[in-house]
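U., I forgot to send this yesterday:
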Amino acid sequence: MHLKRLNSWLRRCLAAGLLAVMTIAPEVAWAAGADLVPLRFLAEEVGATVEWDGETRIVTLVTEDGVTATLRIGDTEALVDGEAVPLGAEAVIINDRTMVPQAFMDLVLGLPVAWDSDAKKAVVDPYMLKAFRLVNALMHNDLDAVNAQLSPALREAIPQEAWVQLAVSLAPLGEPGRPQVLGAGATAVHYNVDMLVPFTNAPQKVIIRFDGEGLVDDFHMNTYMPLAVAGPPAYADPAAFTEEEVVVGEAPWALPGTLTLPAGEGPFPAVVLVHGSGPSDRDETAYAVKPFRDLAHGLAAEGIATLRFDKRTFVHSQKFGVNPAFTVQEESVEDALAAVRLLAADQRIAADQIYVLGHSLGGVVLPRIFDQDEDGLIRGGIAMAAANSMLDTIWAQNQIMVETGQLPPEQLVFIEAQLEILRDPDFDPDNPPVGYLLGTPHYWHDLVPKASELLKEQEQPVLFLHGARDFQVPVSEYESFQADLSGRTNVTFQLFPKLNHVFSEGEGEISTLAEYMVPANVPEYVIDAIADWIKSMP
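Result:
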């Protein structure tokens, strides 16, 4: 388990204020006189054992997963699995109870256990405790204990033998260290617990999702990167809007979302926000930026409602991912249409003023969403950083990343071969040829046609917005739309010189992934462009 290395790593994170598991800031919690809590009560609440040696005045705590901490009354340091760890304040006895700082207990126990001074008892979030025990059971290969906690839907998606394969797939991450709970919270669909599993090569954030029966319904893994995230933009006036938690779609793919409503009576024009590629939350969080949150709050100040929701591949990652033949139809289109119907049924929304905004991949599927809008609910669309040809985009994107040193030159050889296979008219996704390695064949085969092929025949007005510095969907794709749609009179194009793919500003001719690590907001002029276009609609 490499607990010594984990403790050192956690201590560095704590010193930097990086772990959200802290119930208060480390510099406060680990100061003399800060939040002292009774060690025994907290430890025993989560199954740990505590022993007291009256002669030496030493306390020994052993957690359920085998971590041992010893400390002496009056000391400011404890031994955790043999390594010295600062308490931050002296361990003291008050009313016959050993009292230590809260932050130390969080670290040793692996999850926050609070002390209710009024009720005189320890309190732990039961879902946090379940998640902590689940991850430990998985790490110890106790598959029976894991299986007993799974919902029927997840058990069907990942049968017991598949967990062994999952463990094999995680091998490149290195050896797992001791898990640590980062936090928890409820959505309209799940109760989620965020866990840190510090693998030696790449620490992972794991979101455990519980259903209404208290069973694990799904989980999502991603590389743990404790970045500072952009705060609300200056143009977002909290008094200008309210937000409601809603459910988009139905079981088994129900998604939690946020309906942002401008202050006032309504009915309001409204926009459904459709994500780009990959699993994404409702804010479309990409490292340090939250473009969908910014758009929602900015448009609300302009009197325009928005509906944004967590993507299906983010909420139902495992259950959805086992389908080998899924395409953007299931990944994006169906849920976007469900969101449109939800808005249309809300009397606070102007039923004849519902728009769909697609970012990146969301812009690619915008014409498909139009095409399947059988009830004619969608007034028009906004395509932000949309690709016309996904295959051309992949090639151009990889060229730029090689030229800017983000990928090795040999990447182009690989990509060229993969795209050539996909462009073959005889490509059969059910039986892809030997050498095809790009990804799920049905998914990529479905993305071969250009988006403009449908748009040429459609009548809904579309606003195209693009950042001139975008390296993920280069300006050549924006220009491709302009050329292919030159025969249409109700499409509008606007290029922003300073913007990148996530619509934050930067310097230089072309952006890089490093810009996404810098907290930034969608500029107000982008909000204005969207709002002005919607308000110009007859």
